[in-house]
């Protein structure tokens, strides 16, 4: 099929397909589209994010079966063929003859490329070599001075995986602080996360942030997006005094702390007060649409929680309290909550 049709058909399964290059679309049309359609018939959605234990076992099974089918004697030879130049031609021929792409992705509702990368990570013997010695760290610095960010070359020289050497160098070159996080470091981290999230949303929907950019306010982001993988090496650079793993751990602890605190603050009498205050504050905004509400300012109705937490509480409130809410406008929902639900809650309190 032609490129435009392929992109259009893939969009049903991959929402961010418009950001994918033409060459990748061509590959996906060949490797993924038929598989995706088959999964759809079975009622199975295409997945992204962290691989499950079940999927890892399926990859293991697919690789083992392909090795048995072709007689290739190791997963390393199959997935890292360039390390075995004397066997390269034979392995490539066997992979073509026995439909390697189809076999390796069997039973896994994900893009082929992600399955392939996951298999390489699982079966790379250079990926599980433990801590770096001081000698290895010195070698890594020397190789980087010679070859820059050519991680493939450096990984071959060090017999470590690409990802391992890239991440270790990122850790070495940072001016690492191992003590407690200062307020300034935490502020830099949150600003860095905010910046990359805004850019990510802008890439996914170029028009979505126009009004936000002009008004110089923040967008609100749901919890699921905040828990997605972020470009941690970039965030590390922006923070300056911590390496990427520390930044990731700190961000996760911030999210957990805020969400947990919100759950504690929203119980019992405090929960009733929060609902009452939330309805009153929303009514006072006179907003005609949810996009006109500054959810950040509303967070203090409940406490020190993310804006997404307040939004989720508002969502539950309207779903449980407003009949036929889907047919009502935002302002009609707020009016109903103010006129009908608020007196009930105040009486209960």
From TrEMBL:
Matches recorded under PANTHER family: TRANSCRIPTION TERMINATION FACTOR 1 (PTHR46760:SF1)
CDD domains: SANT (cd00167)
Domain of life assignment: Eukaryota
Family annotation (InterPro entries): Homeodomain-like_sf, Myb_dom, SANT/Myb, TTF1-like
Gene designation: Ttf1
GO cellular component terms given for this protein: nucleolus
Name the record gives this protein: TTF1 factor
GO biological process, one term: termination of RNA polymerase I transcription
All residue ranges annotated as the HTH myb-type domain in the record: 124-161
Annotated PROSITE patterns: HTH_MYB (PS51294), MYB_LIKE (PS50090)
Matching Gene3D superfamilies: Homeodomain-like
Domain called Myb-like: residue spans: 124-172, 173-255
MF term (GO), any: chromatin binding
Upper taxonomic lineage: Eukaryota, Metazoa, Chordata, Craniata, Vertebrata
């Amino acid at each position: 099929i032609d490129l435009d049709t392929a992109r259009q058909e893939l969009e049903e399964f991959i929402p961010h397909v418009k950001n994918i290059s033409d060459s990748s679309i061509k590959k996906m049309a060949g490797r993924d589209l038929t598989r995706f359609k088959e999964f759809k018939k079975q009622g199975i959605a295409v997945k992204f994010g962290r691989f499950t234990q079940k999927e890892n076992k399926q990859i293991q099974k697919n690789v083992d079966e392909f090795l048995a089918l072709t007689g290739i004697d190791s997963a390393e030879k199959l997935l890292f063929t360039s390390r075995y130049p004397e066997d390269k031609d034979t392995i490539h021929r066997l992979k073509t003859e026995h439909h390697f792409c189809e076999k390796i992705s069997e039973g896994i509702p994900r893009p082929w490329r992600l399955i392939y990368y996951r298999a390489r990570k699982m079966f790379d013997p250079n990926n599980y070599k433990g801590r770096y010695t001081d000698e290895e760290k010195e070698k890594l610095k020397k190789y980087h001075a010679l070859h820059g960010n050519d991680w493939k070359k450096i990984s071959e020289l060090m017999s470590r995986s690409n990802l391992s050497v890239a991440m270790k160098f990122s850790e070495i070159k940072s001016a690492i602080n191992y003590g407690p996080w200062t307020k300034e470091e935490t502020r830099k981290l949150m600003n860095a996360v905010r910046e990359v999230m805004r850019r990510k949303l802008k890439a996914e929907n170029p028009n979505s942030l126009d009004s936000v950019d002009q008004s110089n306010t923040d967008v609100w982001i749901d919890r699921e997006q905040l828990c997605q993988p972020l470009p941690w090496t970039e965030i590390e650079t922006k923070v300056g005094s911590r390496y990427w793993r520390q930044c990731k751990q700190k961000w996760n602890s911030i999210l957990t702390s805020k969400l947990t605190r919100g759950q504690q603050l929203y119980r019992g009498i405090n929960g009733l007060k929060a609902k009452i205050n939330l309805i009153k504050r929303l009514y006072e905004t006179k907003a005609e649409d949810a996009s006109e509400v500054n959810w950040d300012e509303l967070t203090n109705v409940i406490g020190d929680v993310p804006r997404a937490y307040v939004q989720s509480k508002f969502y539950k409130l309207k779903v449980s309290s407003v009949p036929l809410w889907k047919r009502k406008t935002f302002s009609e929902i707020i009016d109903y909550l103010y006129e009908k639900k608020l007196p009930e809650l105040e009486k209960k309190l």
